[in-house]
Amino acid sequence: MSMLLVQALNGLQFGVLLFLVAAGLSLVFGVMDLINLAHGVQYMLGAYVAATLGVWTGSFWLGALLALPVALLVGLALEWLVFRHLYRRDHLSQVLATFGVILTVEEATRALWGSAPQTVLEPSGLSGGPLGGVEIVAGLIYPTYRLVIIGVGIVVPLLLWFLVERTRAGMLVRAGATHPAMVSALGVDIRRLFTIVFAFGAMLAGFAGALASPIFPVAPGMGDTVLILCFVVIVIGGVGSIRGAFIAALLVGLLDSVGRAMLPDLLRLLLDPSSARQTGAALASMLVYIVMAAILFFRPAGLFPGGRSA
């Protein structure tokens, strides 16, 4: 039970990171109808920038905060240079162009930081001592920093929901997703709206990368696996739905973490240890996609279809 509890917390923490990336991706697709395969590189750049600025400033938190405007500026630059020319293009053109962005940015990352993975230490004060862990059950200490990420995962979705549902800017975003021509006719600069949404999504992905840098190795290509799972999150939750992205991200995070840890042990009840370990590892890597297929069989539009709206 202790192992199950730890893996459930790990799943929630991973789900939170997936949501931060998937929320921006869902907003971009929901509002702009743009398939952005390069969204994962924003996650990677957020991790690299936070790691570098954390070393320069001597503070992880200051480095993570400074990574936000950097991710925003990179998003604005990419939107101006590449993505605004793709809004009226078909999805195949978008896929090919954004794949080219992935290759370009990853090679630039290797040129700047090298190919070797970088290790980022957890924030001082949360990596050891009395604040380094929390005793969740008797004799079981869970890292405080991972609990902080889970806490962020509660606050950010609430702020994002308030921004989209209860502010004038959110009203324009929702209206621009469903009736862009009408919004433009009312005097709203729809291109500027698209730019703001894209840059905001890039900043969320960069923020996720900054938070993930002390947990996962910071290396070129680290956003690729996350991007694939984020597309799974969007498909399960419903394209364009922030609420669906949040629930689906937690579901995917829990399935991935708990499945990889528990399936081999459960299969030992039916198979010999060697076969159980091999079969469990194979099934664990497939579990998320099996669940996605099952959900789509009963709900083809996802759990909370947004109809290109948040």
From TrEMBL:
InterPro entries: ABC_transp_permease (IPR001851), BCAA_transport_permease (IPR052157). One of its GO terms (cellular component) is plasma membrane. PANTHER family: ABC TRANSPORTER ATP-BINDING PROTEIN, BRANCHED-CHAIN AMINO ACID TRANSPORT SYSTEM PERMEASE PROTEIN LIVH. This is Branched-chain amino acid ABC transporter permease. It comes from Azospirillum lipoferum. It is a multi-pass membrane protein. The lineage of its organism: Bacteria, Pseudomonadati, Pseudomonadota, Alphaproteobacteria, Rhodospirillales. The keyword Transport applies. It is found in: Cell membrane. Pfam families: BPD_transp_2. One of its GO terms (biological process) is amino acid transport. The keyword S-adenosyl-L-methionine does not apply. Belongs to the binding-protein-dependent transport system permease family. LivHM subfamily. The chain crosses the membrane at residues 12-38, 58-83, 95-113, 145-164, 193-219, 225-258, 279-298. It comes from the Bacteria. Keywords: Amino-acid transport, Cell membrane, Membrane, Transmembrane, Transmembrane helix, Transport. GO terms for molecular function: transmembrane transporter activity.
